[in-house]
Amino acid sequence: MKKKLLAVVPAVALLAAxxxxxxTDAASTSEQVQESIKTIPADFDALLNWAxxxxxxxxxxxxxxxxxxxxxxxxxxxxxxxxxxxxGADTAKQLKALQGEKGLTQDAVVGTETWTVLLEEYKxxxxxxxxxxxxxxxxxxxxxxxxxxxxxxxxxxxGKTFYSLKAQSKELLEGGGSGTVGFYNxxxxxxxxxSSPL
Length: 198
Fold this sequence. Notes:
The chain is 36% helix and 19% strand. The chain is built from 7 helices and 5 strands, in the order βααααααββαββ. It has helices spanning 11-15, 29-38, 65-76, 89-101, 112-126, 129-140, 170-174; strands spanning 4-8, 145-155, 161-169, 180-187, 191-195. The chain has a 5-stranded antiparallel β-sheet with strand order 1-5-4-3-2. Residues 1-23 form the signal peptide. It comes from Shouchella xiaoxiensis.
């Protein structure tokens, strides 16, 4: 089926909505630690209101909300540093290591290129099925539809992440049928595309 671009939801309108945390059963402490590294709190959504080139340049000595975000992301990437909002020597050292890993200039300055890496990772990892469902509900604006996801985050050919959602009609479900009326790929940026089942 040919994919059809339906809409892009303004991120500003939906990012303020709270989303419940998903609970993950882990078989061991090691798996729990790995899961916590993958999961990033959605406390920094306000930063998504500005493109990387519009973010402030952050350097050693800075103290801010942005520094706390940078430190949170460093920890997420496996570079341990205190998350205290103060850009000290340890944060600079860990930032240089991350910049080196990502092929960026190792200058401990958070400029456009480093912001791009941090914000793209944040958007991809903080995107949960609940948010995808909210995007679909907003874009399709049909009170008869129920959306569900298997919780699997997918990636398209260009590297963009999305959830595949099944849309079911409440009316058809009440009539005893499967209710399935379509499938949609919902991307972390709010883009919703009609699709086939994965």
